[in-house]
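ESCALATION

Customer reports they have been waiting on this structure for their group meeting. Please prioritize. Original submission:
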Amino acid sequence: MECVRSAHESPRADGVVFMFPGGGSQHTNMARAVRQRWPAFCRELEACAARFRAHLDFDILDSIYPDDDRTSDDHTLTRPLVALPALFAIEYAVARLWMAWGVRPVAVI
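Update from on-call: job pushed to the front of the queue and completed.
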């Protein structure tokens, strides 16, 4: 009979973990103030959005920061195809901003 063995690493008190929310936390204009204040965040967000543009038929930035009061558009943040890349791009840009400030995570979840 085989035994099940497990091991774990002792918790570390000296590290930072970046914890980001999942789907459902997205909303129009999320992180707008950060985008306006921190050019590094804006650059990372735009670079990430450009990478998505190569695979999607729309720009996630148009969905996050619409120019008008659209309410019934195929590219709204209520659709997972739009919401999940948008959330990833925002979270990626936040992580890169923090890392530019010298904050290095030991984990990202």
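Sent to customer with the following note: The helical segments are 32-37, 39-53, 60-64, 80-100.
Escalation resolved.
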